[in-house]
């Protein structure tokens, strides 16, 4: 305790505000500036360790990819690692790793993010490489063909060769929405992926990968003035270009329930996906919806777990929430789904599960939760939310998304305070407006009784969050979730 | 919420966080400061790329150690600032300690340990933890049983009280055990559809025969036969302070935390029974270089797993094997990924890692590849293993691997839960917490000769057993020409 370590110094710099509703508010010092070419820069010093986290988010995701090119935003994300005229394919990874760091990319509905974290000694080199690929790319057909193959393997491993095939992420929006941007499959149909050409790559890059459509967030062990000077030095040469206009993707509420049934050649246990149309993240309704979603789904204390898994025993697992099949409940722009993914015992019927489900939903629409229950739920949400801000690379990601989508990085820090102000009756009112049968789509997915006889059930591939490497998980886990064990894991 | 992940580094990853590899490193870096000189075959670095800056030393997290009179080992890492605390209690003896006639019973123990205590029912436990901003995660691995929770630091004592209650006073109510049995049986049925589960289960049996490490899940028979009385007996026998480590990492005062721990755990009783001895080391000579297949109709990919015996975490050549693995397949820039993903596009998910246990170590490789390239993929994996075993890596590869391993660990160790997990992992494998600080020095000291020796010893492809999960006809047709025995997996 006597030692004055850098870690401790960082703690003292944080502003801890006591408020009546909230034991603690955590708000590290953060600033925003804009370069003349339109690039927005968010900086947050964190001297707890000599590292940095860097994230550049571009305002383009699966939602706005061209018709006939489903899956293109994600395929394009892979192309960002395929080299430039001056830094050939492979250089980005080699420099990242020899700098002691890692990188990755991820595509969601409304943004595509590229992030790195490394010891601070690699900051200049990685800023330079990010600026380099914001200027131009090596538009190579050979590399496009290579990454098309990699992406198709990604779809196979996450969708086509998996039980359920993430149908709650890729099939459900097609059932619940009508407009192409909201309804189509973002992992992409193979015929669309196969049709993509290098000129598609070039025109997509020209339109969306421009400084006015990007936010760079940097968190770590630097002085903000020096870091900004570096960013100016490396990024000022990127030609100015504004963000393209954003089309209207809004859709009203559904007026009639939509139901569908699919068979699954690989699954051995049935599952249900349910999605209610829900509003854009910047609205107050969405904030309340986030709370309603967690009250229903978050952990063993949640209402759906208690009712469906414990009391009525009609489900094996329940997960879900607002924007559950895409990203966090706070980081998207446009209509989304508040929904559930339920795996249920083979001995139960869809109707039995839905009846138990509806009883829980209707109860929330009828009667406001107690103040005590709401405080428990928001306490857990606050705790989970801090996990999105804890270490530099996560904080860089979160800050860049908020600045990009809502024009305010600070709202990321304000989420815990806003949650604490949501009232019980607002939650009830949200449920009675949005969580109604007429506003939802339901897909029941059952094991194919004779797979060999019926090849290729309804297995169109589709994504939400395609990462450059590794599989996607749609469960409510913090990005750097604890890896609870320990010697000799599975 | 969806979450991001990366299989290559075992970082952020849900997909392959299975590895125990990658250890901490906050000690000063002593590595070269400049970008490594490119070897002859390497592509040139861009001429304007800024060099790496000066290294800044990392702080090793200070672990305060204590031992209670009942034998409970306590390791505390106080990191003021970020307002959360990660708790992790690990108890030696996981699947390997399950009664022979109840394989995988630890999973049922994990599913029910938080379903009631003398003073709280399951719902109260869940709700009180939710109020503290956390949820309890109990899980088993082959060597240990683990209970962990991440809570708000403002509610750290409330969270600790529940954790302590669950560890000392669990009651295993009959009704909760009956429900957990049914749900685990259905989950097991569901897992039978997952190619990675099938591969891992087969691999454990192939490598460990009937030995204590051969089990990674319960069986239908063991679950059906298990009773609440058995769970209570196992709990009394195995969940004991003299076989346990308590770890806390986060925003607390270490002295206050230690007195809280004393208060909560001082009465934890040591049972009269003798503690389970460490599992016997497996016979490493019995592994035959053969292909074991699991038939999975309708697979669109073959899931390939290769495994050989490798060093234990405490073996002197563990560090050299770690560096060799980073060059071979353990990072995104590794040879295997460059070959079968970035060059040939066979797979999205190649990777390799060292998996270590108290009494054994393994070297594993995995890839999911489309059916048509099952044979070519195995050929390339064999090639890359043998290339590493027979020829020296370049200086650039060696330097990159070392800097990567050191840097990535520093980044990872910024997350409380990662520090807690790594400390638990060290303890399970009989190593002191100081190993965290020693790690980066050991990596930095590795010479080409050390890595060559480890590569020759562990990486020859002829040392591996091969698991293939997929269409039996695809596997037989494409793998027969390797001339290896092909057996159904045990």
Short account of what is shown:
Chain A has 490 residues and is an alpha+beta fold. Chain A has helices at 6-13, 72-79, 91-98, 123-135, 141-160, 167-170, 172-176, 180-183, 190-195, 198-208, 224-235, 284-297, 303-311, 350-366, 371-387, 392-406, 410-421, 424-434, and strands at residues 15-19, 22-27, 30-34, 40-45, 51-58, 102-107, 112-119, 214-220, 258-264, 271-278, 317-322, 336-343, 440-447, 466-467. Chain B has helices spanning 105-112, 122-131, 156-169, 174-191, 195-208, 220-225, 228-238, 254-265, 318-330, 335-343, 374-390, 395-412, 416-428, 435-444, 448-458, 472-479, and strands at 64-67, 73-78, 84-92, 137-140, 144-152, 244-250, 291-295, 301-309, 351-356, 361-370, 465-470, 486-488.
Q: Could you characterize what this model shows?
A:
The complex is a heterodimer of chains A (490) and B (490). In chain A, helix 12 (284-297) packs across helix 18 (424-434) and helix 14 packs across helix 18 (424-434). Chain A is 40% helix and 18% strand. Chain A contains 18 helices and 14 strands. In chain A, the strands form three sheets. A seven-stranded mixed sheet of chain A has the order 3-4-8-5-7-6-14, sandwiched between helices. A five-stranded mixed sheet of chain A has the order 9-13-10-12-11. A two-stranded antiparallel sheet of chain A has the order 1-2. Chain A has two domains: 7-235, Metalloenzyme, LuxS/M16 peptidase-like (Cytochrome Bc1 Complex, Chain A, domain 1); 258-463, 2-Layer Sandwich (Cytochrome Bc1 Complex, Chain A, domain 1), CATH 3.30.830.10. Chain A starts with 5 loop residues before the first helix and ends in a 23-residue tail after the last strand. The radius of gyration of chain A is 23 Å and the shape is globular. By secondary structure, chain B is of the alpha+beta class. Chain B has two domains: 64-265, Cytochrome Bc1 Complex, Chain A, domain 1, CATH 3.30.830; 284-488, Metalloenzyme, LuxS/M16 peptidase-like (Cytochrome Bc1 Complex, Chain A, domain 1, 2-Layer Sandwich), CATH 3.30.830. Chain B has a six-stranded mixed sheet, sandwiched between helices. Chain B has a six-stranded mixed sheet with strand order 9-10-8-11-7-12, sandwiched between helices. In chain B, strand 9 (351-356) and strand 10 (361-370) form a beta hairpin. In chain B, helix 11 packs across helix 16. Chains A and B meet through helix 1, strand 2, helix 3, strand 6 and strand 7 of A and strand 3, helix 2, strand 4, strand 5 and helix 4 of B.
């Amino acid at each position: 305790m006597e030692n004055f370590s850098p870690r401790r110094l960082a703690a003292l710099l944080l502003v801890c505000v006591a408020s009546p509703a909230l034991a603690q508010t955590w708000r590290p010092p953060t600033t925003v500036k804009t370069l003349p070419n339109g690039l927005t820069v968010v900086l947050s010093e964190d001297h707890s360790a000599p590292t940095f986290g860097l994230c550049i988010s571009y305002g383009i995701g699966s939602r706005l990819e061209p018709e006939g090119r489903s899956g293109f935003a994600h395929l394009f994300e892979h192309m960002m690692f395929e080299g430039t005229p001056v830094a050939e394919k492979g250089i980005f990874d080699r420099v990242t790793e020899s700098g002691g760091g890692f990188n990755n990319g991820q595509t969601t509905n409304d943004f595509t993010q590229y992030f790195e974290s490394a010891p601070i000694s690699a900051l200049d080199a990685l800023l330079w490489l990010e600026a380099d690929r914001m200027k131009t790319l090596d538009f190579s057909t050979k590399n496009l063909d290579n990454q098309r193959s990699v992406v198709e393997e990604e779809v196979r491993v996450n969708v086509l060769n998996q039980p359920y095939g993430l149908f709650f992420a890729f099939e459900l929006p097609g059932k619940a929405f009508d407009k192409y941007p909201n309804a189509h499959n973002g992992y992409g149909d193979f015929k669309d992926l196969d049709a993509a050409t290098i000129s598609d790559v070039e025109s997509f890059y020209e339109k969306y990968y421009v400084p006015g459509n990007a936010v760079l967030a940097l968190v770590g062990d630097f002085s903000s003035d020096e870091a900004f000077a570096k960013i100016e030095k490396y990024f000022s040469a990127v030609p100015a270009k504004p963000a393209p206009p954003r089309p209207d993707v809004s859709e009203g509420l559904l007026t009639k329930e939509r139901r569908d049934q699919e068979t699954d050649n690989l699954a051995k246990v049935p599952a249900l996906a349910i999605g209610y149309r829900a509003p854009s993240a910047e609205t107050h309704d969405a904030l309340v919806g986030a709370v309603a979603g967690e009250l229903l789904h978050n952990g063993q204390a949640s209402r759906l777990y208690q009712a469906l898994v414990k009391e009525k025993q009609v489900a094996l697992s329940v997960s879900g929430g607002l924007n559950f099949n895409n990203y966090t409940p706070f980081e998207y722009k446009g209509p989304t789904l508040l929904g559930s993914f339920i795996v249920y015992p083979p001995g139960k019927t869809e109707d039995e599960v839905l009846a138990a489900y509806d009883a829980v939903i209707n109860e929330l629409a009828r009667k406001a939760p107690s103040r005590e229950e709401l405080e428990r739920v928001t306490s857990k949400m606050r705790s989970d939310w801090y996990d999105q801000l804890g270490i530099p690379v996560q904080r860089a990601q979160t800050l860049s998304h908020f600045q990009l989508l809502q024009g305010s990085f600070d709202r990321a820090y304000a989420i815990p305070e806003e949650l604490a102000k949501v009232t019980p009756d607002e939650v009830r009112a949200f449920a009675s407006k949005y969580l109604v049968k007429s506003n939802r789509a339901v897909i029941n997915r059952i094991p194919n009784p004779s797979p060999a006889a019926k090849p290729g059930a309804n297995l169109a591939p589709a994504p939400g969050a395609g990462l450059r490497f590794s599989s996607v998980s749609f469960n409510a886990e913090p990005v750097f979730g604890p890896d609870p064990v320990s010697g000799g894991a599975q | 919420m969806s979450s991001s992940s990366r299989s290559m580094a075992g970082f952020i990853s849900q997909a392959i966080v299975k590895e125990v590899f990658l250890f901490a490193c906050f000690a000063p870096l002593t590595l070269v400061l400049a970008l490594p000189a490119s070897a002859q075959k390497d592509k040139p670095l861009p001429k304007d790329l800024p060099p790496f800056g000066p290294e800044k030393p990392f702080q090793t997290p200070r672990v305060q150690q204590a031992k209670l009179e009942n034998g409970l080992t306590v390791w505390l890492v106080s990191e003021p600032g970020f307002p959360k605390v990660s708790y992790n209690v690990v108890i030696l003896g996981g699947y390997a300690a399950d009664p022979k006639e109840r394989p995988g019973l630890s999973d049922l123990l994990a599913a029910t340990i938080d379903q009631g205590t003398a003073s709280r029912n399951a719902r109260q436990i869940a709700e009180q933890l939710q109020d503290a901003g956390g949820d309890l995660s109990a899980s088993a691995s082959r060597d240990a049983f683990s209970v962990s929770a991440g809570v708000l630091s403002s509610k750290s004592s409330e969270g600790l009280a529940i954790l302590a209650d669950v560890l000392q006073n669990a009651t295993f109510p009959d009704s909760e055990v009956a429900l957990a049995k049914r749900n685990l049986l259905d989950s097991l049925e569901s897992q039978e559809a997952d190619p990675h589960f099938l591969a891992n289960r087969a691999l454990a049996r192939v490598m460990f025969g009937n030995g204590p490490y051969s089990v990674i899940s319960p069986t239908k028979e063991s679950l059906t036969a298990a009773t609440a009385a058995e769970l209570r007996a196992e709990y009394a026998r195995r969940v004991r302070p003299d076989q346990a480590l308590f770890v806390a990492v986060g925003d607390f005062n270490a002295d206050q935390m230690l007195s809280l721990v004393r208060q909560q755990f001082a009465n934890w009783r040591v049972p009269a029974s003798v503690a389970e001895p460490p599992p016997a080391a497996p016979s490493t000579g019995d592994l035959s270089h053969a292909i074991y297949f699991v038939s999975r109709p309708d697979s669109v990919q073959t899931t390939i797993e290769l495994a050989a015996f490798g060093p234990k975490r405490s073996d002197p050549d563990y560090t050299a094997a770690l560096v060799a693995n980073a060059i071979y397949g353990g990072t995104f820039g590794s040879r295997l990924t460059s070959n079968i993903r970035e060059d040939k596009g066979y797979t999205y998910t190649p990777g390799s890692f060292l998996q270590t246990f108290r009494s054994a170590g393994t070297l594993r490789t995995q890839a999911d590849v489309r059916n048509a390239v099952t044979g070519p993929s195995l050929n390339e994996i064999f090639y890359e293993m043998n290339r590493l075993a027979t020829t020296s890596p370049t200086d650039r590869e060696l330097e990159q691997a070392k800097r990567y391993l050191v840097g990535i660990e520093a980044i990872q160790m910024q997350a409380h839960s990662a520090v807690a997990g790594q400390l638990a992992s060290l303890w399970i494998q009989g190593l002191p917490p100081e190993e965290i600080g020693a790690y980066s020095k050991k990596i930095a000291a590795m010479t080409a000769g050390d890595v060559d020796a480890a590569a020759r010893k562990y990486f020859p492809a002829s040392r591996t057993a091969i698991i293939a999960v997929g269409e039996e006809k695809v596997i037989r047709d494409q793998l027969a020409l390797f001339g290896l025995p092909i057996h159904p997996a045990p």
